[in-house]
Amino acid sequence: MMKHILLAFIALFCCQPLLWGQQSYPNAVAGPEGIYVNCGNQIPRDFAYQIHRRASGAKAWEEKALISAENQFDRFFNKVKEANAHNPVYEFPADSIKMAVWGIINQYGNVDSIPLYGMLPMYREALGVTWYDATAEKGKRYEYKVVVLKANQKPTEQLVPAIKYPSARKMDYLIKTKEYEAQEERVNIVYTIGDRQDMYVAKIFRSYYLQSDFAPLTELVGFIGNDDGSFEAIAVDRSVLKKGIVLYYLQPYDVYGNPGQTSDTIRVTNLINKSETVLEGLKARGVENGIKLSWKFEKPEYLRSIDIYKSDEEKKEHDYLISVSPNDTCFIDEDVEPNIIYYYKVVINNAYGKSPQSVNVMGWLDGTKKASAPNDLKAEIGEGVVHLTWSKPDDDTKAYYILRSDADSVDLRQVGEAFVSDSVLVTYIDSVDNVNSTTLAYAVKSENSSFDISPLSDTVYVNPKRNINLSTPLNLNTTFLDGRVWVRWTTVDEVDDNVVGYRLERRVLSASETTDSVQFLPIETDKVLLNYYEDTEVKEGETYEYRVISRGLHGMESAPSVSSTCHVPVVKPISIHSLQVHKTTGGYQLAWEKTGQENIAGYNVYRVQENEPPKLLTTLKTDQTSYFDSVNSDETVYLYTVTCVGENNVESDIVYWMGAN
């Protein structure tokens, strides 16, 4: 049975949008039988609006009206009554509220600011801001000119674009019948209004099937606004004849009386005896092969059949299921799934048509089937996500549970709520941007309509690709020792699981180039970098700058570390200290011990005498440790020294000179 409707109708004014403030003036609006010219929003109490009209294509204007506000109470409401005659969709005010209306209207100079009444054409005509053109020909286009006349001021005029009536477009307010109920004294109908737009009022139209045409009822249609912004229209027909088949539809109108698209037409059977719609003992319960629906009642007059309706949601509209014989007292619905609640209603068909639907009864079938694990689980990585796919294991599978573990735990834990999908090939996307692990394991369980949960599927493993910042290595320092540069840093992979390695980069700094013009280049090595590196590929006299970068999976890298520079010094040899010089016949014999220094290319032998610079006598290889200087002068004193020349072509300093023993 439909719930009892309280006829506490809310005045439509309270929820009607104020459209006037959204328009520019002057403007013209087509009505069903004429054209409304809205001259402005300022009420002409000390000036007037003059309206001119011409047919589209014509040159000459014809003055049609001179209007201003009615400032006397009786004349004002007489004017309201005249205006109401050509647009009766809104009600003429009762005498008891006229004085209140008059008081409200006279507080304002701008008609758009007047609450409730300022939007209604009948009041706007009486206030002198709107003129109704009742002489315009239907279907013919007209232009209008509005002139503002005010004492001691130059008239101003504005044009209104061409318009014709009636409007070719009917507004669709998406009105549908929500529910209806035939009672002994009345018929209650509720409509949903999907798109309110500029709808102002509605009327209910009624027809007796095969007996009369549709005609509007005098009963008011009430409106209710819902919390979600939608509206409902409520109509009550108290004058309907009993034991009849009645047709109804709802006709909406805008504020100008233009009709919109109507609702659907419903057919109502108005029964005299309420007991003919009541079934006693209507029950539903699960049996081995479905849900058994049973009932008992006294057979009403001329019973023809019983219709059964079904839904899987309590408040959802029920779908027709089947019609059974008047002699049947039960029906088994085999088209059901385990552990899902179904709702049933019945309708009696007799000589007067269909009764309203009965009360809801619910039933369900207990399920015992075991669920199977999902098949063919696969995982693919994306930026910040993991795409899981698997095959639906059974036809009655209703939901899935996704389980995941990371490198810190071997236990699979559920991700989110149950995932519902009817697809044969199921896809699930897991966001992993906030999952701090380089390796993830996934498995899936299924749940069937018997609420049984399957074992785990096969487990798959992935290395997720996430948009994260890797930790930068710390405390980079460099030292030159034993002919190589030692590079050391503090690792961060113990505190950042996403770091899987390091890359060392180097550049050579040159006095002739700016730092920014020299690029860092990776040091190629087959070694796994831990927290140090020995750079043996260095040259004496060069300055090197190093930096280290953390590396993650999928090409992720950290910001470079703070760099460290190291200068490789030039190695200068030591001169020979073991030189012996002996004077012999014909010259001087020089001898010395072979140097023990590494990377020595040879020796330079020098001689010096008074008042002359040192003279290079010869250059020898390192395996030569003697030299004979042929000189014949006995009066001259000669001194000798031997220097070492490195493979880097750097020569040792001359420390001392040696004369003959």
Task: Name the features.
mainly beta, single chain, 5% helix, 661 residues, Immunoglobulin-like, disordered N terminus, five-stranded antiparallel β-sheet, 6 domains
What does this structure look like?
- The chain is mainly beta and 661 residues long.
- The protein folds into six domains: 12-163, Immunoglobulin-like; 175-270, Immunoglobulins (Immunoglobulin-like), CATH 2.60.40.10; 274-363, Sandwich (Immunoglobulin-like); 375-462, Immunoglobulins (Immunoglobulin-like, Sandwich), CATH 2.60.40.10; 474-567, Immunoglobulins (Immunoglobulin-like, Sandwich), CATH 2.60.40.10; 580-646, Sandwich (Immunoglobulin-like), CATH 2.60.40.
- Helices cover 5% and strands 41% of the residues.
- It is built from three helices and 44 strands.
- The strands form twelve sheets. Strands 18, 19, 21, 22 and 23 form a five-stranded antiparallel sheet that branches.
- A hairpin with a 7-residue loop joins β18 (305-311) and β19.
- It is elongated and about 160 Å long.
